[in-house]
Target: Proteasome activator Blm10 mid region domain-containing protein
Amino acid sequence: MGEEIPEKHFEESKMKAQKENKYNRLLPYVHDIEEEAEKLFIDIKTNLIRSVLGREMRPGCAMWTSRLIKYIKIYGYKFSKQDHIALIKLFYELLIIPDLEPTRVNKCASTLTVLLKKKYLLSREDLQLDWRPLYDMCVRVTEKTKRDLGMYRYSASFEGTLFNAIRMCRVYFPASATQEILDEFKQYLCPFNTCDMSYSMEYMELFLPCHVKPSEAGISYKLWFDELMILWNNCQEACPWENYLMYMMTNLARYQIGYIDWQPHIANMFVRSLFQRSLLMFKNYGVVENVIYISLV
Model:
């Protein structure tokens, strides 16, 4: 039988950390993990700050960012809440640096996603982020990839990584940002212009905050919910922007359980969902026909 590990050791450790890797307690050198992790994190934090202050994005900042990711994989979120918030704000500021290399944008976005992954560790009172710098950066970077590749190489997962980071940050957007976002995109909501409509719906789905308190409903989703539902009901044809609207409603239903009456909208949303997933295209004597198959099981 091995030496029994005192529970007090873990209790003291858990009080300091946001979320530790619970499997580390099974290691034979468990008594040394606390000192080892603390020393390594101080080293990472110090050198990361030095790299940023010295404007050394590569190799300094890149190397210590990779070590931070490895640290989280091995030890979990074994740092204080203050350090957690400071790291998030640091990589948020790095992400929105103008004219940052796409590889650095991708790395900062993926790191920010990891830091924001455990939503229950930080409340909206602990952290708030501004949506406008992220939107400006997103438009600048994504539109550049579509317009001109230039000398930079964009990975296939670049846009997905960036959008995932924005969705993680969206939880910490203030509810008051809803009106600002609507003022930015409602001007493009025209069903007869598919391009502008898809553009506005995509960014509204990406940025509109839904993780709000019930007391903030009047300045958040109630500003757009009824209006978008009426618009959706009046557009009978299958539109390319419907998926974004469905994702938006799904996200709202996830975070506002019990606060919205979905009963009047369920039938329409169900039919739209079937229509989108059951529309098949085939050629018959040179003519393209649309056939809808609805199977009831």
User: Anything to note?
Assistant: The first strand starts at residue 19 and ends at 20. Residues 178-297 form one domain. The CA atoms of residues 167 and 228 lie 20 Å apart. The beta strands are 19-20, 76-77, 279-284, 287-292.
